[in-house]
Amino acid sequence: MRKLGVARLWYEGNSFSPVPTGLHVFQAREFFHGTAAKAFYRGTKTEIGAVVDFAERSRDWSVEFLLCAAAPPGGPMTQDAFAEIRDTILDGLGRDQWDAVYLSLHGATITESDPTPELDLLRQVRRVIGRTPLAVSFDLHANLGPAMVELVDIAVGYKTYPHIDMAEVGARAIALAIETVEGRIRPVCALAKVPAILTSFNMRTTDGPMKELAELAGEWRRRDGILDASVFGGFAYGDSPFAGASALVIADGERALAEEAARELAQEIATRRDRFAVTLPSAKDGIARALAAPGNGPAAVVDPADNPLSGGIGDTPALFRAVLDAKLKVPTVFGFFFDPDLVARAHGEGEGAMLEAKLGGRITDAFGPPVPVKARVLKLTDGKFRNLGPMEHNLSVDVGQTALLDIEGSRTIVTERCQTPNDPGYFELHDIDLAKVGLLCVKAKNHFRAAFAPLTRAIIDVDCPGPAAANLGHYRFRHAPKTLYPLNQ
Hints:
Number of helices: 14
Strand content: 15-25%
C-alpha cells in the first residue's frame, strides 16, 4: 500500500497589523494531527476535509495526517510560532518514507522577521523528502515567487472568491499527485508574475474582472496537455518580495505550453489592473444607502478595512461611531468588537447587567479613538458553533466567549477572539433572527457575501480607517519591489 503524508500551514499575514500572531492563536483554531485531524475535518468543505474523504475511500493508499495548523488572518506570525509548526511538520515527514506528500498552504504567510517563510518551509520539506512528488495547494490571494514553485511538482490554487472550492482544490491536488506516482502524468509548473499589487475589494469571481480571469483560466484547463491553471490576485497587505498578482499553470510534460499559458493569463490580469481599484462611500453615506435599498431582509454595511480575514484587528471604531451618530430607528446589529476584557466583565456581571465601557481604539487609536458607551448585557455565549454557509461548511468555529450588548438600541457583539462574522451560525449563536434585522453592520469583506448575499437586500462596502484599507498609500512597504504598481507611482 502506498503512503501519502499530509500537513497544513494555512495563514495569511498582514504586515501592517500591530498585533503579532502567536502559536496560541493556531492552537485555538486548527492544530491537529493523526486521528484528531481526521475527526475535526471529516465532512467539512476544506482541503483537509477532502483528504479525509480520500483516505476513507481509498484501498490503495494509506494517509497519515501530520500537523494541520491554521489560524485566522492577522498580524505577522511570531518566528517562534512558525518554527514550531515547521519543525513539527518536518519531524513528521522525516519519520517515514512517502510515495507522495501534500501540503495545504496559504501562500501569503509572513513572520515578524521573514517575509517569505513558506519558501523556507518548502526548501526544508524538499530536503527531507528528496524527489518524492510534492503537491501543494494555495489560496487565491497567495503571494507566489518562482523559487517557491520550483520546489514543488504540483501547485493548485483556489478558483473562487469567496473561497467555496477549498475541498475541490484539495481533491485536485491529491488526484494529480496520485497520477504522478502512478506514472500517468509528468507535471511541470510555470509561474508568471504581474507587476502590480491589487487590492481584493473588487476581486470576487462572481462578477467583474476576476470573474473574467477565472473563466479564461477555465478555458486553459480544458485544453489538451493542461493539468491545471490558476490565477492569483495576491494579498495586498502582505509586504513580501513575492508581492503581486500571478498566474500558475501545470502542463503534462510540456514546459513551453505551461509557460505560454501562464504568460497569457498574467497578461490578461495586467490588462484589467485598473478595474480592481474601487472608490467606497463613507460610513455615513453607506448607512444611508443601505437603509434606502429596496427589498426584503436586512441591508448590510461592511467595513473591509478592519476585516479580520484581511488582517484586521476587530478594534477600529469608525463604522460603529457612524451607527450611533445616525440614531437609527430600525433593528440594528453590529458585529463585532474584539475585546476579551470587556467580554470577561460581561460574563462576570451576568445577563441584564449595565456596563460602562469604551469600544474600539483598545489596541491602537491610530484608526480612531475609543467610543464611550453604556451597555446592557443581553446574552452571553461560549462562542462555539458550526458553519452553516457554503464557505468552510460544517467546520467547527470557536470565537471564545462572547457578549451581546444593547447599546442605544443597537445589538453589538463583543468577542474573546478576533474572527470575522462570515457565517449565519455566528448570529444564530446569539439568538439573532436576521429576517427581523433592518441594518446589519459587520467587519468583513467579500467572503461575507458567500452566505449573506441571499439573506440580505443590499451589501454596501464603506471606506473606514483600518489595517486593510483600499488606499495602499496609507502603508509603508519595505520588502515588495518598488517597481510594482502602485508603489512606483
